[in-house]
Amino acid sequence: MAKFAAVVLPPVFLDAIRAVMPAELSMDDFIAACQRPLRRSLRVNTLKISVADFLTLVQAYDWRLEPIPWCAEGFWIDREDEELLLGSTAEHLSGLFYIQEASSMLPVSALFADGGKPHRVLDIAAAPGSKTTQIAALMNNQGSIVANEYSSSRVKVLHANLSRCGVKNVALTHFDGRVFGAALPESFDAILLDAPCSGEGVVRKDPDAMSNWSPESVAEIADTQRELIDSALHALVPGGVMVYSTCTLNAQENQQIVQWLLTTYGNAVSVEPLGELFPGAQQALTAEGFLHVFPQIYDSEGFFVARLRKNHTITPPAKPHYKLGKFPFTPLSGKESAEISQAAAALGLAWDETSQLWARDKEIWLFPTELEPLIGKVRFSRIGLKLAERFSKGFRWQHEAVIALASADGKLRFELDATLAQEWYHGRDLYPQQPPECDECIVTYQQQPLGIAKRIGSRIKNSLPRDLVRNGALDFHL
């Protein structure tokens, strides 16, 4: 394992931490924690497998899993063999788990703290997708999520993680998050604003996180955070819940941002304390009811989480002036939908009434029904799943649809052994001893869909998208 680089903590930063750290915590413990490598952790993706079944599946491995108190699906993980990356395991490639830092699971846990089932969720700063996939799993792929990412280079990564995890109820947008309050006022019953921040809490993962830190940069970031939280509040329906979170530690980006919102909007907003979120939450609880997680408390990244309730309507901002252009999709008729559903069912693909079929030229897409009222109000980069392309001889089913929609009891599933599954991820054609009986099948490993394939004689032609092909060593416990 590579040696952990020492973290340089500027004196002015340490002074800021002293000003906000509770008396019962030690600055020496804080500095020592920042110098330790971060514990690795994962979250089981319950869209693919239950926690109990996952634990049974990996029981024979050299994985020591310790439950994370605030996330029933989360575990710290320690492995004897560190030569192969956790991201190269079969279980990660097939979407059974997401490599996610433990503290970053807190905001979504707080968003769902009351056990509610939101219908329409906005994730304002979504990439790379850890929290979006966590939200989708807690929603069981029902309802809808608008996942926004301002950085164009990170939108592709966001989509790749959603696809790997079998998420089907998400629409992607690529905006400055400050537009949502005006563009989609009172449209979401739950909003996660995991705000861009100075990143003071992530030094255990990234020793260079503080290299550009300065009081001036913190003040500039805080200005943006105020505008983002203001926009988010306007996008929230009355009675809805918003979680504001950061992976930084100073009060300027945390307590002061929330206090600004409360001062600005008075009794339109209230804080819902998080002291009962999980056993031990009191250790990080502030007087206001926020969670201020210093890294030495739970041996994790630093984090801040606040849960807010919008109590009544507030004056909406002026509507934005922009042209959306013509929406290029049209909903399919009942007859066409039935034809496509029947063809998909023959392959083992299924969906319910929370998704509807739309078409663009020869493309067939599956959109979350809950998002239809937003069509024409904002420009989406991508909605739902691309299901298939229509041809004169039938349909060409898409990889992401197979990953999300393949039923566990499909008749055209063809289970691979570990050797063949590795060959699949290496992008090579397969030569099983006993080829599948059908010309088209869904190849699986550990009963999880890996993709769709065609049999050509005794060969299975590999159709894994080229950007998913892995060239390095894989960990399939041969």
From TrEMBL:
GO terms for cellular component: cytoplasm. The active site is at C247. Its EC number is 2.1.1.178. Keywords: Cytoplasm, Methyltransferase, RNA-binding, rRNA processing, S-adenosyl-L-methionine, Transferase. S-adenosyl-L-methionine binds at A125, A126, A127, P128, G129, S130, K131, E149, D176, D194. InterPro entries: Methyltr_RsmF_N, MeTrfase_RsmB-F_NOP2_cat, MeTrfase_RsmB-F_NOP2_dom, Nol1_Nop2_Fmu_2, Nop2p, RCMT, rRNA_ssu_MeTfrase_F, RsmB/NOL1/NOP2-like_CS. It is found in: Cytoplasm. GO terms for biological process: rRNA base methylation. It catalyses: cytidine(1407) in 16S rRNA + S-adenosyl-L-methionine = 5-methylcytidine(1407) in 16S rRNA + S-adenosyl-L-homocysteine + H(+). Pfam families: Methyltr_RsmB-F, Methyltr_RsmF_N, Methyltranf_PUA, YebU_pre-PUA_dom. HAMAP family: 16SrRNA_methyltr_F. This is Ribosomal RNA small subunit methyltransferase F. It comes from Serratia symbiotica. The lineage of its organism: Bacteria, Pseudomonadati, Pseudomonadota, Gammaproteobacteria, Enterobacterales.
